[in-house]
Give the backbone structure.
Amino acid sequence: AQRLSGADDEIAQRMLESARLRQWEAKGIPASRLGNFWDAERLAVQYDHVDEMSPSELQQWYAQAGMPEETGLEDKDICTLLKLVTVWQALPLAELRSECEKSGVPIPGGRGGFGDIEKQRQRMTKQLLLQERMIAWDAKGFQANRIGDVYTVLRLVETSAQIDKMALDKLLAWYEGLGFPAEKDMGKDELCSLMKLVHIWQALPLHELEKECRSFSIDVEEATSSNCSIEDRRDKLMDKLLEHNRIEFWEARGYEARRIGDMRIAADLVAEHMHVEHQMSREDLVKWYSGIGLPAESEIAREELAQLFKLVALWSRLPIDEVTKDCSARGISCAKDGDMADLGQEEYKMALLDKLLVHERMRVWDTRGLRATYIGDVDKVIAMVQSQEHIGTLPLEELQSWYRGLGLPEEKDMERKELIAMARQIPMWEAFGVEKLREECDRLQVKPDKVAADDEDQQRDVLMKALMFHGRMAAWDEKGFQANRIGDFDKVVQIVDRYEEFRQMSHEELSKQYNDASLPQCRGAADRDSGEDSEREEMIKNIKTVMIWEMLPLAELQKECEVRGVPSQIRQISGFRAQSEDDKRFELIHRLKVDLRVTT
């Protein structure tokens, strides 16, 4: 009975141990590889101890293990590493060697090596830990597998953590030390990433550095000569990688660095951009603009000047073949003929840059309605812009005097802005020349008076006058004078002139004129609360309407009657003489006046 009881206890003990072993295996403890239950139990206790360690204790262990300070390393990652180390330290030596073989870690003294077993265990554990970190560092982008040397990677990781702690001004100083302009909007993350990348390139073996260059289509052989030292070769390859990196970075920022092709020239362009954005005032830009022979424009915005400055800065730094591409894309001739036939390469490029600048300004002036491309001659356009700029400075009295000199009726509510817009048409038409003035008249269906074919000055004056009158007709039409329907410039002038006279009259004079014309009583007169101003406005409005009717052609009068629901046809009475057009117009105007009295 005692023997049976002892056997049962042993079975129960083994079952308990087996259950515990399964629990530990589920927690990641390789109990089956440890050789006995008690070693597994000790390891389980160590696991629990690791789980109870504070963040500072974990960090302390990681540092004592010879690991570098590392940005982004979390406590849970250290905890996992420490548990791995406790496992490796607990494994039997044969199992530890198997672990090394499986991980590709060299075994001190070989598979059957002799010597101090504890030292072998420590070396193998250290190498396994480093191998584990190499895998993690490679996943974090430290290129650990390509670098190969674990201690080089250790220094790289430590340097990376130090870079993350650097102040922005220190990073910018480093960047400028490479010969690059400090871009005001460059963030710390961008600078940190670049500095880390440079350190990775420095850590790569030469063959990996060459492979890195080829991955960006950098010609390794062209970048280095066959007789240079390994260090010189490394330096040149790194310069090429840095050049490619910056060109791509600036390209993404819109600097067209790829077209420039040279990192130093592209860096100079970036510096120019920074200068114009952060140091040049509008006055500085205006001075530059005038200095390149362009006319001062008071309304030109700083943004427009800065954009032109940047364009010129880009064109001046492009290789000649890229300059010709820009010219061709804009329809600018690049032929080396005429005045350009004997130019050298640099003079030829300057001539093309001048053409690009002229084309750009002509394009902008076109968007402002100056018809620069239509005029075609940049000197004429510049003279026109200068004249228009001067007109914009004239006082109202001088503009009004000029307007009266044209023989046009003075309009009380005509603003300075409208007078300037009119006056600015003159220098534009002068720049057109006679042939283009004729084309403009044809386009607008304007019919100028006939003049002698051999008198160009008189032709120009007549054509410009016709265009001016056409513009006034359009303006008067917009002001409700029905100028297009009337169709006769002189008649519209009479209406506008007479209308302005009525507006200048006193209330008593206007009322007398209004009543003498047998026009309907205004609502303001019947409504005492509406006031004198309201009555006056209605009288002027009705007078204007009647004056327009009196000038409309018969066909337009008939349309007016139809719109207002007034009979538009006049029957011929048998036995009476045929009515003239004036008779018909008189009758229709009478009907419209009657309708006005009824509806008012």
User: Anything to note?
Assistant: The chain is about 70% helix and 0% strand. Residues 2-26 form the longest helix (25 residues). The mean pLDDT is 88. The CA atoms of residues 224 and 232 lie 8 Å apart.
